[in-house]
């Protein structure tokens, strides 16, 4: 089913006014950057609605940003009712988790806001508490590559399970994403620095790990654009995803079994509206039970993939 922009905007307003949805969303956005971006398939002149560096730590933050901040023209701060009739966007949140979160701004993107964000961005990496390793496998709805994407993610999550590495897995409309929350600086703050300009940093290491997954597990793994720096984003669970020809919910799976049995129709708004409540609570009760040494486990997995990737490798035995 296809939707015009007016219908899509009505869907967004209806979905995001649902208090249950709001409560689920803010579980993910606390101490992370919240972003709404116009889909790439929309006209370029609509990019004025895009907004980055938003802070959402409460229901009130969410309501203010989505129902006030999203209504301001990004260029001149003028409230424009006519443009709102077909305003469509997708929601994202940062891979970086910060100790103190994103600074407060007025939402109007005025000169004062620009100064606040500019100053914060200079040293934002110093406030990073953890940085998620994101595995992104893209496909196309209605195309057999969605099935390939699922098979690829099954292989990858089997490997993560083998090394006892916890992850959040979700359907993103374009395929599937797995996010692994890691504090690599606890292992070595120099080798895994959050400073993109450092000689060695966590982004280099994660890009290397993604390339190993690409070379050894599935060529559908994106390793070129995901972990470039601290500004990278991932789709926000329980948000509405707008593809050119479809509208679905970005759906996180509570269990591996739920993922294995997933059908794309399961992510239709009509099929998930009554299931949304308390899922985030269950999800966040599952993943804190992760192993204490998950960072070490992750490094061990990377070492294993490196052993597979070495050409002309041979086994050396005593004697």
Specify the CATH architecture.
Alpha-Beta Complex
Q: How would you describe the shape?
A: globular
Q: What integer is the average pLDDT?
A: 80
Number of helices: 11
Question: What is the CATH C level class, in words?
Answer: Alpha Beta
Strand pairing plus helix content: what structural class? alpha+beta
Kindly give the count of domains: 1
* CATH fold category name: DNA primase, PRIM domain
Summarize the amount of helix as a percent range: 25-40%
Evaluate the radius of gyration: 20 Å
Strand order in the sheet with the most strands = 2-1-3-9
Low-confidence stretches: 71-85, 311-319
Separation of the first and last Cα atoms: 68 Å
Number of strands: 12
Describe the structure.
The chain has 319 residues and is of the alpha+beta class. It has a single domain (5-309), classed as DNA primase, PRIM domain, CATH 3.90.920. Helix content is 36%, strand content 16%. It has helices at 5-16, 19-29, 59-67, 81-84, 111-123, 145-162, 202-216, 256-260, 269-272, 279-286, 294-309, and strands at residues 33-37, 51-55, 90-94, 96-98, 128-131, 133-138, 168-171, 175-180, 233-235, 240-243, 246-249, 251-252. It has a four-stranded antiparallel sheet with strand order 2-1-3-9, covered by helices on one side. A hairpin with a 2-residue loop joins strand 10 (240-243) and strand 11. It is globular. The model is unreliable at 71-85 and 311-319 (pLDDT under 50).
């Amino acid at each position: 089913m296809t939707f015009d922009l007016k219908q899509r905007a009505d869907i967004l307003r209806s979905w995001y006014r649902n208090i249950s949805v709001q409560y689920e969303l803010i579980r993910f956005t606390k101490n992370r950057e919240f972003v709404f971006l116009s889909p790439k398939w929309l006209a370029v002149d609509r990019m004025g609605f895009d907004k980055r560096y938003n802070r959402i730590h409460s229901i009130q933050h969410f309501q203010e940003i989505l129902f006030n901040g999203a209504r301001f023209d990004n260029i001149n701060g003028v409230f424009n009712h006519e443009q709102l009739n077909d305003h469509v966007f997708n929601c994202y949140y940062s891979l970086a988790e910060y100790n103190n979160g994103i600074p407060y701004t007025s939402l109007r993107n005025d000169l004062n806001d620009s100064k606040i964000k500019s100053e914060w961005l200079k040293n934002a990496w110093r406030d990073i508490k953890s940085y998620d390793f994101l595995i992104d496998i893209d496909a196309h709805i209605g195309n057999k590559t969605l099935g390939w994407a699922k098979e690829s993610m099954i292989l990858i999550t089997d490997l993560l399970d083998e090394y006892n590495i916890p992850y959040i897995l979700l359907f993103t409309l374009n395929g599937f994403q797995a996010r692994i929350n890691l504090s690599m600086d606890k292992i070595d703050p120099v080798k895994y620095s959050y400073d993109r300009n450092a000689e060695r940093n966590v982004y280099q290491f994660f890009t290397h790990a993604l390339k190993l997954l690409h070379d050894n597990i599935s060529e559908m793994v994106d390793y070129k654009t995901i972990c470039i720096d601290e500004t990278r984003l991932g789709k926000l669970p329980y948000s509405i995803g707008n593809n050119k020809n479809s509208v679905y919910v970005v759906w996180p799976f509570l269990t591996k079994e739920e993922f294995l049995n997933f059908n794309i129709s399961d992510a239709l708004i009509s099929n998930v509206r009554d299931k949304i409540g308390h899922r985030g609570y269950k999800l966040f009760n599952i993943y804190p039970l992760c192993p204490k040494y998950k960072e070490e486990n992750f490094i061990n997995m990377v070492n294993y993939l490196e052993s597979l990737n070495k050409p002309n490798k041979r086994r050396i035995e005593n004697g």
